[in-house]
Amino acid sequence: xxxxxxxxxxxxxxxxxxxxxxxxxxxxxxxxxxxxxxxxxxxxxxxxxxxxxxxxxxxxxxxxxxxxxxxxxxxxxxxxxxxxxxxxxxxxxxxxxxxxxxxxxxxxxxxxxxxxxxxxxxxxxxxxxxxxxxxxxxxxxxxxxxxxxxxxxxxxxxxxxxxxxxxxxxxxxxxxxxxxxxxxxxxxxxxxxxxxxxxxxxxxxxxxxxxxxxxxxxxxxxxxxxxxxxxxxxxxxxxxxxxxxxxxxxxxxxxxxxxxxxxxxxxxxxxxxxxxxxxxxxxxxxxxxxxxxxxxxxxxxxxxxxxxxxxxxxxxxxxxxxxxxxxxxxxxxxxxxxxxxxxxxxxxxxxxxxxxxxxxxxxxxxxxxxxxxxxxxxxxxxxxxxxxxxxxxxxxxxxxxxxxxxxxxxxxxxxxxxxxxxxxxxxxxxxxxxxxxxxxxxxx
Length: 444
Known about the structure:
- By secondary structure, the protein is of the alpha/beta class.
- Helices cover 48% and strands 20% of the residues.
- The chain folds into two domains: 5-179, Reverse transcriptase/Diguanylate cyclase domain (Alpha-Beta Plaits), CATH 3.30.70.270; 192-441, TIM Barrel.
- The strands form three sheets. An eight-stranded mixed beta barrel has the order 8-9-11-12-13-14-15-16. A five-stranded mixed beta sheet has the order 2-3-1-6-7, sandwiched between helices. A two-stranded antiparallel ribbon has the order 4-5.
- The termini are far apart.
- The model has no long low-confidence stretch (mean pLDDT 88).
């Protein structure tokens, strides 16, 4: 006879290391995958359902960065305890990586139970918790897929659960979302759109349109705004609203942005070369473009390649990015200002601009949002707000432009505010480059 106690303990410890997460003592990814396959096999035999809940913590990186990794580890352990308390002993809770967790609910007969578990988890993790003397506030998003309703095997069930989790995050986090076929169709459509956009950059399928900006006092030309369109291979001319948001989400916007900068600068050079009076061209840029490390270089490269001076380019920013103090945004804007590029805030009057911060920005123009202009003639505060913006701009030595002027009455109202300029369908719709040059040639 011999004592094998220590050998058995060692074997058990090895098994724990192989199958369980050491921080939370939950099943790890390997054990999770094995248990999910087993749960599906049993569900087939018993004609039952399996629910998979995938979740991750909202703002977990923020917790690590601000409170330190020890507090982050405590939060993961607390999360594991909340999840275990929310399910039965026969269910499985796993940590599958970082702040990502999974729950396998077996023998699900009442769909209400899935919702109850998800709601309990979301509500519990949305409450602040005291960890190592710090009050930590996080939350979670949950994606739910169900076998056999949604998938035919474990891999497909996980894939669809991931899609549902992504949908939950896009809805604002702190919620749960069931997978459905509409979601999958939307995801496929987004993948196709992303692929088409990447090809469009390579094939240069984008076209530039231009809309004039006129002086309020005499109708003289102040400049023009460059607007992008996408000539899709199917022949449709797509408007920015059909692809810009997706381009921003996928990062393709930086490549598109470089194309727009160069195309706009080249057109400004063409105006000068064809004998027209020089005028600045305005280009909208997205927040992700400004935050990109190569943004200033992209602007200078476009100016140099087109052969125009920086005074003939205007960069239009959203209020939110203009007030963003991260990613070196203010320094980049100051660099462009020192270079001689004009800066403007687009759609001003509907965002969250801080007037105290506004005076620190190297901005030279405010473009008044078209929703204010559209309602100037109606009873209400919009006329007074527009007039106040114009007066604010004048006190800061800014130029002001009214966007979306569509009627003579609106134009007259804008003039009464002493706004510097106007832009809108009353004067011209956005025109293709050749048509815009013809329009300019016909102006007195």
